[in-house]
Fold:
Amino acid sequence: MIRRVSKGLVIAIVFIMALTACGGTPQDASAPKASEAQNAGEKPSSLVIATGGTAGTYYPLGGGIANLIKEKAKTNATAQVTGAAVENMRLISKKEVDLAITQGDIADYAALGTEMFKEGAVKNLQAIGALYQETIQVVVSEKSGIKSVSELKGKKVSVGAPGSGTEVNARQILEAYGLTFNDFSTERLSFGDSAKKIQDGGLDAAFVTAGAPTAAINELAATTGVQILTIEADKIKAITDKYKYYSQQVIPSKTYPKQDAEVKTVAVKAIMSIRAELDTQLVYDITKTIYENTQPLIAINAKAKEIQTDKALEGISIPLHPGAEKYLKEKGVIK
Structure:
């Protein structure tokens, strides 16, 4: 009898050892499953949101979003002043920031490694969703007498900060008119510096890509007086046919002081992008916070009225973060 029990015990031990060798050890029910481990991501104690210059729209809205994340998502967040869209993509790539406001077209260039990102694509770039329309505004001094983009030839024109999204927008708009940067005296200045130089008489015109009203233009319009040039219908069609991330945009009258008529132009989407490495639940909470708490943002800038769940995919060509995708599926935006 004892020999039978011993023999049975030996067989049981051999069986358990065989299971162990094959990876068949019973799994602890409390241990995370493989799929859960793969979905787990970084959960920084404090998030950094890359925005833009203080004279634009990105920085104040980014600050408002940071406050919302602190209040609603219970995660500390701060807005960082940057060189805006293009620099923000590089900051995401280097993991120096966690979220970044950028233009939809710039995100596309970054993800594909084209235009100003030919040295290398941003591999960890994903999207939360669209925010609002960023309007391409061709601003001229009231005294310049310029009535059309075609009349910029031979003038002194700022095409945005070096390497900026505005600079690419300016090149693409001018292309529709058969013009290049070589057709005028080109300067590459920030929005604030462009406005100051127009005010001082050292500049005839400036390209500004930002939500309208833009602080720098608003101040200039109230003091010196400016005009925003209309882009003709055939040129709008040429631009939107060639570059799919553009859409027609109307700047309503009275958007700026002394602006008596509406202005037809084109726009790209401002989007909220994010590092792919961040945790899915954290990004879900951030996405929900942004789209369900817009009133404090509207108080900062009226453009925040355009932050709507049903428009969250407009102008988005880069992959969504799984956390954002989860939220938008719940809301029926993604079927």
